[in-house]
Structures are given as C-alpha cells and as structure tokens.
Amino acid sequence: MRFMMWLIPGAGESGAPGSGFDTAGVDAMARYNQALWRAGVLLALDGLCPPSMGARVFFAGGRPELVDGPRAGAVDAPAGYWIIDVASLDEAIAWASRCPAAAGEAIEVQRVQEFADLAADVRQALARDNDERVDDAKQDGLRRHPVGAS
After folding, report:
1. Are 89 and 72 in contact (CB under 8 A)?
2. CA distance 112 to 86
3. Who has the most CB within 10 Å: 74, 78, 124, 134?
4. CA-CA distances (angstroms) from residue 73 to 15, 76, 105, 112, 113?
5. Does 108 share its domain with 139?
6. Same domain membership, residue 92 and residue 142
7. Is this structure's pTM higher than 0.90?
C-alpha cells in the first residue's frame, strides 16, 4: 500500500526556501530519508517552498477563483512530503514516528487510493477513458500542451 506523509511545520511558513534549517536537523533528516530508501519503502520525497510562493485556487459555485494570492502565514501548509510503499497503516505510522521532526511539527499520514479500491463501474469508466487518452496521445505524437492551449 502506498501512503503519503506530509511534514506540517509548527509555526506556518518560516521565510525563504532553504532558510531556517540548522545543520544538525538537516543531517538527521538526511539519515531518516536514507533509512527509508535503504528499507526499500521510499517512492518519492520533496521539500516544498513556503506558501507565500504559491497560490490557492478555490472553486466557488464551480468556477475557479484565486483566494488570497500568495498565501503568507498559511496554517497547516506542508513543508515537504514522502510517498512510501509499506504493508499497512501501522507500518506507515511507525515510519512517520521515526522522523526527526522538530518540536511542534506534525506528520500527516494518508493512504494513496489505488485503482483496485474503486468500485467496478468506476474502474471500467476510467479504463475506457485511459484507452481513449492513449489513442489520442498516439495520434498527437505525445505532445504536451500548457493548460488553456489549443
């Protein structure tokens, strides 16, 4: 089973990307990340820039709307994430518990939904849609288009 673990800082955002790290904390986190990798459970990980460098698009009445622009001081915004593949929620929690997070930080653990978790009719609809997208990709020569481009 795949799980996503988010590191939630205790005091919201802490400034520019890469700021606010102490050498001992970085070393401890590097050792933790290496332990995940050596155990063969790590699929992906990344740190995230502060919320002030991003945006939130909210869907009010079904229409997209930018809410509070760059989000300074966003509460509970993740500072980074890991995706791990383990046998159970208990194992994911055990890995999260080993993280050398600082006082006041939290790790949110959530299972990634698998295709097999979906109802049979939903899986069939997605499989049909995927077949159509593969056909479209072959026809388009696998070109990428920015959002809103024709």
Report:
1. no
2. 11
3. 78
4. 9, 9, 15, 28, 30
5. no
6. no
7. no
Bridge-based pairing state of the strands 56-60 and 106-111: unpaired
Our measurement of the distance from residue 1's CA atom to the centroid of its chain's CA atoms, rounded to an integer in Å, reads 16
Tokens (6 digits) for 82: 């890991």
- DSSP letter assigned to residue 112: P
For residue range 81-132, list pLDDT tens digits in order: 999 999 999 999 999 999 999 888 999 999 998 888 888 888 788 777 766 6
104 in the same domain as 62: yes
CA atoms within a 13 Å half-sphere pointing along the CA-CB vector of 16: 1
Q: Would you say 13 and 105 are in contact if contact means Cβ atoms under 8 Å apart? A: no
Helices assigned H by DSSP within 39-142: 89-97, 120-140
Whole-angstrom distance, CA of residue 40 vs CA of residue 48: 23
Dist CA 77 CA 100 (whole Å)? 19
Residue ranges making up the domain that contains 123: 118-150
Q: What is the CATH number for 82?
A: 3.30.70.1060
